[in-house]
Amino acid sequence: MRKTSVMILSWSLAAAAFAQAPVEDLSQREAAIQRSQQQTGAAFRELRQAQYEAKLAEQDNLNAQEALRAAQKQADELRRQAEAAKQALDAAKAKEARARKAYEEALGAVDKAWQKPPAK
């Protein structure tokens, strides 16, 4: 189908060239046909190359989008883990503060006991 289209296009270009210059001799017509066919073939190769590159670019785009989704999912999971670690740290610090307060109160009680004169 495409080859037929290419051939029809090249013949059309050749016919247009002939219509513009009816005084050309046969060898000039054949050269014009050959040039037109070569140009058509080159244009078709460029088209195929562009289609191939577009397909590769589309696949690269899809791969990048998938990688982005995976990275976002991983980032969300890491964010949840960081928040949980922060909550655990805050809880541990609060527990440490309570324990330090209890220790200081107990230490204060010992100091008071040493400062009191013995009971008579």
What would you note in describing this structure?
It contains 2 helices and no strands. The protein has helices spanning 2-20, 26-115. It is mostly helical and 120 residues long. The longest helix has 90 residues, at 26-115. α1 packs across α2. The chain has one domain (2-87).
Task: Using brief descriptors, characterize the structure shown.
120 residues, mainly alpha
Topology, element by element:
Layout: H1 2-20, H2 26-115
Low-confidence stretches: none
Looking at the structure, what is the overall shape? rod-shaped
- Sheet of most strands: none
What structural class do you assign from the helix and strand content? mainly alpha
- Residues in helix, %: over 70%
Strand content: under 5%
Order of helices and strands: HH
Short description:
The protein has helices spanning 2-20, 26-115.
